[in-house]
């Protein structure tokens, strides 16, 4: 009896994946980073969210390998006296959640709008012009505008409580046109094929044809975009944090940690910025490498086997 696991293990995808060392190493590193971030409450040496465990006298301690460092704080401490290793693990979890949440929102909006635009001709011009207008504004411009409004409406203290969902909303709303354009192009090609005509002949509704028949055949490019967009969303959050519109320092992301330590980098406390920066670069790099492999695998013109 062939089980689901055996079908997956013997699939063409796994066969080529296991024979690509770059993809395998990138996946293993990404798996370690993701598991470490979500297991932070268990494996982190300290709780950076608990003020009772933080001593301001421990601020700006160097990493343990430095002569002035201590084994209690392996990667040193930040300017608030928090263990940098623990804060990086918690911060990476926030960055990943924001990246995944923003991409989920982008994909949902882009797929719905792309399906409607490609399948229903009278909506095509309207929806694509909205996408063109959206693309004329950068993510950061929208973030500055919306962030300033929310800070004014709710105050800085209350804004900190809604910072994560707000960043997901901002980044998601700013990047959906890429999905919409890609899905629209696929729908325009698919709706002319025989299986769509057959579905119309037997009386299936337009909604059923779009979601049950056309959509599954447009998911390959959506998957490729999603792998790249997760990295882009994480970078966008880091950039917004650098502008002061990201996560608050009470619950920092990797971008917030880099920003917080930037003013100390030339005073000798380089680890506050450099170490989170290295972790952020590593996270973005492995995601992009996996995205490149998925793109090549799903494109027969690029993938050589």
TrEMBL record:
Domain ABC transmembrane type-1: 92-291
This protein's UniProt keywords: Cell membrane, Membrane, Transmembrane, Transmembrane helix, Transport
Keyword Cell membrane among UniProt keywords: yes
Spans through the membrane: 21-44, 94-116, 137-156, 162-179, 222-249, 269-291
Membrane topology: Multi-pass membrane protein
Subcellular location: Cell membrane
Listed GO biological process terms: transmembrane transport
Main location: membrane
Keyword Iron: no
GO cellular component terms, A-Z: plasma membrane
Pfam annotation, one family: OppC_N
Similarity section: Belongs to the binding-protein-dependent transport system permease family.
Name listed for the protein in its UniProt record: Peptide/nickel transport system permease protein
Upper taxonomic lineage: Bacteria, Pseudomonadati, Thermodesulfobacteriota, Desulfobulbia, Desulfobulbales
